[in-house]
Amino acid sequence: MSWTLTQLQTFCVVADRGSMQAAATECGYTPGAVSQQMAALSRGVGGELFLRDGRGVVLSDLGQAFLPYARRVTREDRAAQRALGELHAGRATVRVGIFETAGAVCCRPLLRRAAAADPPVDLVFEEVDVEQAAGAVRSGVVDVALSVHYELVPVQLPPEVVSVRLLTEPFVQARSREPGGASTWIVPPVAETFGLAVQRALHLAGRGQESAHVVTDTALMVALVEAGVGRALVNPLMLRVHPRELEVEPAPRAGSRTIVALTTRAQGRRASVQTVLRALEEIFAGNR
C-alpha cells in the first residue's frame, strides 16, 4: 500500500465536497487531475474509495474506513508545517503541565520571561494532576510538568524522566484564630501522595487522625481550618495562594515538600525547554 500526502489531502476534499469537480475548484486542479489522483490512491489502498452518485461521488465502505486516517495524517502535516514555520521564524512552543498552587504563582511571570527570551518561546498550559505528571511528560502529553515530591514519601522516577528542584518548603500546622476551634485533623485522601505524606507526619508526631475530615481541594482545606472545623498541615506557598486568617506554628516532624519541574532527557535538550526550566528556577527562587 502506498500513497502521497497530496493524494490524501485531495481525497479529504473530495469526501467533504462529494464531487471531483468541486474538489478540483477548491484545490486548484483540473477535474482530470483530481480523478487521476483518486484513481492512483485507490490502487494504493487496494480498492475503490468512491462510488458514483449521479454527477457526484459518495464514499465506499473502504473510503469510509480510510477517511479518519487520511484526516489524521493531513492534520499532523499541518501541525508540523506550523511548528516548522514557528521555528524558522525564531519561535518554538513548549507545553507546560501545571497544578493549582504552583500555577497561580508561576504562570504570569513565566509568560513574561518566555516572551522576552531570545528567541521567544510560546507556552501552552494544561492542568496535570501531580500524581500523573511523570506519566504526562513520558507520554508526550506535555513537554514540562510541575509536580511535588515529599520528604516522607520517596519517589522513583522513570529513567527517561528528570527533575529540576524549584522550591523546598516545610509543612506547618495551621489552626483557626477563633477560640474553641476543633482539634480534629483535616487531611488529604491517603490515596494521594500528599495524603500519605500527611499520614506519615502525624504518625511520627504520635498524633492520631481517626476522626479526620478528608478533603482533596487545598483551598477548601484552609477555608475549613479558618472556620474552626479542624487543623491541618499546610505549607507557606499554599497559604500565600489561599490567604486566610490562621494561627500557624512549626511542625518539625512533618518533613518538607519540594516543587519540581519534570521533563524527559530528550526534551531537556531542546533550547526552548531549557529556557522554560531556567525561567521556572528564577521564579521560584524569588518565592523562597
UniProtKB/TrEMBL annotation:
Q: Which UniProt keywords apply?
A: DNA-binding, Transcription, Transcription regulation
Entries under Gene3D superfamilies matching the protein: Periplasmic binding protein-like II (3.40.190.10), Winged helix-like DNA-binding domain superfamily/Winged helix DNA-binding domain (1.10.10.10)
Q: Which residues form the HTH lysR-type domain?
A: 3-60
Q: Which PROSITE patterns match?
A: HTH_LYSR
Q: Report the InterPro entries cross-referenced here.
A: LysR_HTH_N, LysR_subst-bd, WH-like_DNA-bd_sf, WH_DNA-bd_sf
UniProt keyword Transcription present: yes
Superkingdom as given in the UniProt entry: Bacteria
Q: Where is the signal peptide?
A: none
A single Gene Ontology MF term assigned here is: DNA binding
Q: Provide the Gene Ontology terms for cellular component.
A: protein-DNA complex
Similarity annotation: Belongs to the LysR transcriptional regulatory family.
Q: Write down what this protein is called.
A: Transcriptional regulator, LysR family
